[in-house]
Amino acid sequence: MTLRFAILGDSIAYGQGASAPADTAAARLSADLAAHGVPNEPRIFAVPGAQSRDLPAQAARAAAWHPGLALIIIGANDLTRFVPPQQAVPRLTAALRTLRAAGAEVVVAPAPDLSVVPWVPAEMRALVRAGSRLLHDAQTQAALAEGAHVADIGMSSAAGFAGDHSLFSADRFHPSSAGYAVIADALAPAVRKAAKVLAG
Questions:
Q1: Which of the following is catalytic: 115, 174, 176, 177?
Q2: Confidence band for 168, pLDDT divided at 50, 70 and 90
Q3: Catalytic status, residue 132
Q4: Which of 9, 36, 71, 106 is the most exposed place for a label (fewest CB within 10 A)?
Q5: Active-site residue, 11 included
Q6: Which of the residues 10, 11, 157, 177 is marked catalytic?
């Protein structure tokens, strides 16, 4: 049986910055599942530029497709637009409830640490890191409360991006193909775990 795999969220979930479709996180994760004996059909519901406020509509579209597995990558655009966690997180919760009610196992990748983005001024990095952490932690708590899996790449993989600017695409904000490889490797264990739950 082929697992329906929905990918929701923002430009990182969509794959903006990758050199080829096969280099995106979604394609890499789909290939990883297949390599571990889980045939799957990925479908992108993510939209570049999306914020948490856009998640409920994405979740409604995804739920109508009846996925068994869903991945949500969200938070970067909330941070760049200074959306406070108390506004962003309830939208994530609403999306999670829609997907869970549709029978999907859901993996959430919370907000990344934007302090590692090359164009962030050095004097602002501590403040940006603190803001990223606030949203990241609030999203993590909300995801766990709704029975979702959390792939904690937002803060833990930041050191790799901070030390290697080749992981960014030409716009110095979105990941490059190499960056998506790092992200997919970090996400894969949680995605595999969620798929295993479905297999019973």
A1: 174
A2: confident
A3: no
A4: 36
A5: yes
A6: 11
